[in-house]
């Protein structure tokens, strides 16, 4: 809201400096944006919150100033000499849309001379950035910026049959506004029509067909109340936001409608001549009776934290326009003014008292009682998980939760159901709530690749959204860690295992993982109680080729909700065996297709419970020595008894069993 | 004692010492051997020296000469062993020396995202002030995102153009739709529904609003929301808690300013500024929990009062790390990420 210093001083004496006033207003509710000089007149830009529609006119701002500085508000006096002819003889009004237009008033002025505005009017409007149109339109604007009530002047000659109807828009009704554009109206739009056609869009814009022009002689002046939500909807959907719609959206003073109409007619006659017909055509409810609001003195201190003298509190409310219905030393009943729609409860009155009394009087150093608060397990876990990921060189990334269809289709490890979608895209084309973090991570990899940044390995911890089978239930959100990078495949598995071994009590089973995002045979799932909670694999070759990824990527996800359920925040000591282990390495030649999982299974079964650790060391291939289709696998076995020192003979016997079993089940051959 | 026997004793001592010192392979066994041979009190050299008194006077010059030779032999064997084991300070290896002026080998550690670092910092500070971290879902229902927060049906904040409603056919935006939460205040409601006062919590997380992405806006961002409900919680406490927060976060002596504002879920509502040095820094919004909100979760506003505050994490993060474009936070260019 732009406020002209000169204009404002019509309604309240301004003996402070513009800077001082602006800062005072900032601290009492009208936030100061900036001050500029227009032709020597300081123009103060104030931000008006949506609950303070009353401050969208100079009088409203003047009222705040008067309260803050203890000054008198000077309202313009309206003297309106009416002709003997009644307005109701000239026009008929029907309000068929009370839900959209609670009140519609119209006055008639005849015999005006439309022309240029006088200098004072041009100057007032120019100061706040409004271009002069003609003396009639300028006055309607002037009154709107004076008191906050939008007005509209129609050329009465163009209103057919002198009939004004307030109604809903007809299906697919089209309307040409004064900007000469044609709009198709939605059914909820408020239409002002004559006997045949729409002549204005209530609260939003006038129509081309009834616009005041140099040829206009008789006028209809509209001052009405239109429903905020409907005005907002129409203005927004047609992109027709205007100072008028802005004010209706924030509610006008129902008791100020008549005043504004009279004020408008008075000023039009002053600048354009003519005479106003007697009376006002009025359709709709008179303003509602105001109900009193109780305020208890004790509640002010209870909320604000400081004592404010009761007389001071009530004085502030009175200056703001509240009437005191009754009062005692502890309680008062106040009737808020009609322009303050935001004052309906005790809490609202307390805020008024506090902001005018001054928030600066509230201390900033009162005692704050202590209370225990510990770091959550989830935060402890996340610290550790992120630390482990960082320690192997993964950078943490943060990506949008909603992705494009192309990305979304790449991976869905956690659900077979289609993704949830937003009705408007988050970013271009992105309407799919992600079911996996992998597509987003791939996008990050590709972004970096396009900037010639290679070896970008990363992780993200964030929620994925899975559709809920239960009707009416919120989507299921799982907190995931996603990992993607051109790392050594075992490094990714190593990270998952480190998280599980170091931070949880989970003894996971593993199984093959086949899915669209991983190349066949490269995926592994970690399973607990029959359900997968982590997986990894190599990004499917088809995806790699289609998206032109410059390297083979390892990808994987861990459901951190499951990890958290089994989080071991405080490890417990396991007894360290006093009996030393015996470590034996075996170099076995096996068939190429043999997988470690099977190999290890045979070794473990043969070695029995004294095998405390089986380590994979390396694989190498030497077709010349071992023949084609063979590989050498070097493993290390740690044998240890919990009850005695193991002898070399015992170890030899176990190793012999292992070798025998490997030969039998795996056709392995021991290398010396 | 005969000279013969004395010299034999010396020879055996020398032979033993040379053998033992040649074989020692640790500094500990070297020390053991030193004590045996050259120990000041009971070493074999000391003991042989004592025997010299038993020699005939005429034999003493020869015995003494030989004794000195053997003592030197033992000492050289000891020195040689010590040198071999590196017990002295002199470099022994003849290979190329390590050049300590070479640059260090950079460990390949990853980096935490600056938003994570900021959020952890905020949790840390608020934790010290007694606020416990809570969280709630990112996809919310109308009740938690609007109704319980005193945002009525006809409130502009519910406009489909201002929210990311989920595109589920059978649901209407006014009553039972789901949406990506537009504020973390939803978590306040969920916490209050589950817990009786007193309650001192913060919630941090992602929120979503349809803003065109530019240097200062992104349709997804992070908020921190704080809530304290108890008997006798006042605006003075709100101011004091925020001052403690700001003093911790910014360092130095910080003062707090409230400017009146408007939020549906607080009354009074204020914008909070920090005076840090000579500058007023915008912190975020705050206020006393609206009685309608307390009623919505079944708290009696006649018994309990509370305050709430909320702030954008990105703004704090950007100020802290000197970041000027919010979009950089979500592009994840590694040249950006690896600076933090």
Question: What is the 3D shape of chain B?
Answer: rod-shaped
On the 0-100 scale, what is the average pLDDT of chain A?
A: 95
The biggest beta sheet of chain B is recorded as:
7 strands, mixed
End-to-end separation of chain A = 91 Å
- Low-confidence segments of chain B, ≥5 residues, pLDDT <50? none
Category by helix and strand content of chain B:
alpha+beta
Description:
Chain A contains 21 helices and 32 strands. In chain A, helix 13 packs antiparallel against helix 16. Chain A has 672 residues and is of the alpha+beta class. With 340 residues, chain B is of the alpha+beta class. Helices cover 39% and strands 21% of the residues of chain B. In chain B, strand 7 and strand 8 (266-276) form a beta hairpin. In chain B, helix 1 (3-23) runs parallel beside helix 4 and helix 2 (27-38) runs antiparallel to helix 4. The longest helix of chain B is centred in the N-terminal third of the chain and has 25 residues, at 60-84. The mean pLDDT of chain B is 90.
Task: Give the tags.
heterodimer; A: 672 residues; alpha+beta; 7-stranded mixed sheet; 6-stranded mixed sheet; 21 helices; 32 strands; B: 340 residues; 3-stranded antiparallel sheet; 12 helices; 10 strands
Helices and strands in order:
The complex is a heterodimer of chains A (672) and B (340).
Chain A: E1 2-4, H1 5-8, H2 18-26, E2 31-38, E3 41-47, H3 58-69, E4 82-86, H4 87-90, E5 92-95, E6 103-110, H5 119-127, H6 135-147, E7 151-155, E8 163-168, E9 174-176, E10 182-184, E11 190-193, E12 198-201, E13 205-206, E14 219-225, H7 228-237, H8 243-249, H9 257-272, E15 275-278, E16 281-284, E17 293-296, H10 297-304, H11 310-319, E18 323-327, E19 331-335, H12 346-357, H13 377-391, E20 395-396, E21 402-404, H14 405-408, E22 430-433, H15 438-450, E23 458-466, E24 476-485, H16 489-503, E25 509-512, E26 524-528, E27 531-538, H17 541-546, E28 554-559, H18 560-565, E29 582-591, H19 596-607, E30 611-620, H20 623-626, E31 630-639, H21 648-666, E32 669-671
Helix pairs in contact in A: 5-6, 6-9, 7-8, 11-12, 13-16, 19-21
Chain B: H1 3-23, H2 27-38, H3 44-51, H4 60-84, H5 114-128, E1 132-134, E2 139-141, H6 142-145, E3 164-165, E4 178-180, H7 185-194, E5 199-208, E6 220-230, H8 235-250, E7 255-263, E8 266-276, E9 279-289, H9 291-296, E10 305-312, H10 313-321, H11 328-331, H12 334-337
Parallel strand pairs in B: 1-5
Antiparallel strand pairs in B: 2-4, 3-4, 5-6, 6-10, 7-8, 8-9, 9-10
Helix pairs in contact in B: 1-2, 1-3, 1-4, 2-4, 5-10
């Amino acid at each position: 809201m732009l406020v002209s210093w000169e204009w404002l001083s019509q309604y309240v004496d301004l003996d402070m400096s513009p800077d001082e006033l602006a800062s005072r207003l900032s601290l009492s509710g009208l936030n100061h944006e900036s001050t500029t000089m227009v032709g020597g007149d300081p123009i103060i830009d104030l931000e008006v919150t949506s609950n303070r529609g009353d401050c969208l006119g100079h009088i409203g701002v003047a009222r705040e100033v008067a309260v803050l500085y203890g000054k008198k508000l000077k309202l313009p006096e309206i003297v309106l000499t009416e002709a003997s002819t009644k307005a109701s003889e000239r026009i008929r009004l029907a309000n068929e849309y009370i839900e959209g237009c609670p009140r519609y008033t119209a006055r008639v002025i005849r015999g005006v001379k439309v022309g240029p505005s006088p200098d004072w009017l041009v100057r007032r409007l120019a100061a706040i950035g409004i271009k002069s149109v003609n003396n009639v339109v300028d006055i309607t604007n002037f009154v709107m910026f004076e008191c906050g009530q939008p007005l509209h002047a129609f050329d009465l000659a163009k209103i057919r049959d002198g009939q004004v109807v307030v109604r809903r828009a007809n299906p697919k009704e089209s309307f040409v506004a004064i900007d000469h554009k044609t709009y198709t109206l939605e059914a909820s739009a408020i239409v002002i029509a004559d006997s045949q056609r729409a002549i204005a869009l209530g609260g939003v814009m006038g129509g081309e067909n009834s616009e005041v022009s140099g040829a206009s002689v008789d006028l209809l002046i509209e001052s009405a109340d239109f429903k905020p939500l409907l005005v907002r909807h129409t203005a927004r959907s047609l992109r027709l936001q205007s100072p008028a719609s802005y004010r209706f959206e924030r509610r006008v003073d129902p008791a100020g409608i008549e005043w504004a109409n009279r004020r408008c007619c008075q000023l039009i006659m002053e600048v354009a001549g003519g005479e106003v017909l007697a009376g006002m055509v009025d359709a709709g409810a008179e303003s509602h009776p105001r109900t009193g609001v109780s305020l208890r003195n004790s509640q002010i201190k209870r909320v604000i934290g400081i004592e404010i003298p009761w007389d001071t509190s009530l004085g502030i409310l009175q200056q703001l326009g509240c009437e005191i219905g009754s009062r005692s030393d502890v309680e008062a009943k106040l009737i808020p003014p009609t322009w303050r729609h935001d004052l309906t409860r005790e809490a609202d009155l307390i805020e008024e008292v506090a902001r005018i009394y001054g928030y600066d009087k509230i201390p900033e150093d009162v005692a704050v009682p202590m209370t225990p608060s510990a770091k959550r397990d989830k935060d402890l876990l996340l610290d550790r998980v992120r630390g482990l990921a960082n320690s192997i060189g993964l950078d943490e990334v943060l990506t949008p939760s909603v992705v494009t269809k192309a990305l979304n289709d790449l991976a869905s490890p956690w659900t077979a159901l289609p993704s949830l979608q937003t009705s408007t895209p988050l970013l271009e084309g992105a309407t799919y709530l992600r079911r996996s973090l992998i597509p987003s991570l791939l996008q990050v990899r590709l972004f970096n690749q396009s900037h010639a940044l290679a070896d970008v390995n990363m992780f993200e911890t964030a929620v994925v959204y899975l559709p809920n089978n239960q009707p009416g239930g919120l989507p299921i959100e799982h907190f995931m860690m996603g990992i993607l990078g051109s790392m050594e495949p075992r490094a990714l598995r190593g990270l998952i295992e480190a998280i599980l071994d170091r931070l949880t009590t989970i003894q996971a089973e593993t199984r093959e993982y086949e899915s669209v995002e991983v190349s066949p045979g490269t995926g592994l799932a970690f399973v607990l109680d029959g359900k997968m909670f982590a997986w990894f694999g190599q990004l499917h070759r088809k995806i790699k080729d289609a998206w032109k990824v410059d390297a083979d990527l390892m990808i994987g996800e861990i459901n951190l909700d499951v990890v958290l359920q089994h989080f071991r925040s405080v490890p417990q000591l396991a007894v360290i065996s006093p009996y030393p282990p015996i470590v034996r390495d075996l170099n076995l030649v096996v068939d190429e297709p043999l997988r470690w999982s099977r190999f290890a299974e045979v070794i473990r079964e043969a070695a029995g419970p004294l095998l405390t650790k089986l380590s994979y060391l390396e694989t190498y291939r030497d077709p010349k020595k071992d023949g084609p289709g063979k590989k050498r696998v070097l493993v290390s076995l740690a044998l240890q008894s919990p009850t005695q020192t193991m002898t070399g003979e015992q170890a030899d016997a176990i190793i012999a069993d292992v070798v025998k079993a490997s030969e039998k089940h795996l056709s392995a051959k021991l290398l010396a | 004692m005969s000279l013969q026997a004395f010299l034999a004793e010396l020879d055996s001592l020398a032979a033993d010492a040379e053998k033992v010192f040649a074989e020692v392979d640790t500094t500990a066994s070297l020390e053991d051997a030193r004590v045996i041979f050259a120990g000041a009190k009971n070493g074999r050299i000391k003991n042989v020296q004592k025997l010299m008194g038993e020699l005939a006077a005429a034999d003493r010059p020869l015995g003494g000469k030989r004794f000195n030779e053997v003592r030197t032999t033992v000492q050289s064997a000891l020195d040689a062993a010590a040198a071999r084991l590196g017990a002295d300070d002199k470099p022994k290896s003849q290979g190329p020396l390590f050049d300590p002026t070479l640059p260090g080998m950079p460990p390949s550690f990853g980096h935490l995202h600056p938003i994570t670092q900021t959020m952890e910092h905020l949790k840390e500070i608020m934790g010290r002030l007694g606020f416990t971290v809570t969280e709630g879902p990112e996809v919310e229902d109308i009740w938690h995102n609007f109704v319980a927060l005193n945002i009525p049906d006809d409130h502009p904040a519910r406009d489909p153009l201002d929210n990311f409603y989920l595109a589920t056919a059978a649901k209407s935006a006014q009553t039972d739709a789901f949406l990506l939460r537009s504020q973390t205040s939803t978590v306040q409601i969920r916490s209050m529904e589950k817990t009786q006062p007193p309650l001192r919590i913060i919630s941090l997380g992602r929120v979503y609003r349809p803003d065109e992405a530019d240097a200062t806006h992104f349709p997804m961002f992070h908020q921190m929301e704080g809530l304290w409900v108890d008997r006798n919680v006042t605006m003075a406490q709100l101011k004091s808690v925020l001052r403690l927060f700001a003093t911790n976060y910014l360092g130095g002596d910080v003062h707090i300013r409230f400017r009146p504002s408007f939020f549906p879920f607080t009354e009074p509502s204020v914008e909070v500024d920090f005076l840090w040095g000579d500058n007023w820094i915008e912190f975020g919004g705050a206020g006393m929990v609206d009685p309608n909100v307390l009623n919505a979760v079944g708290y009696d506003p006649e018994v309990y009062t509370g305050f709430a505050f909320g702030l954008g994490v990105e703004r704090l993060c950007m100020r802290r790390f000197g970041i000027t474009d919010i979009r950089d936070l979500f592009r994840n260019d590694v040249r950006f990420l690896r600076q933090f």
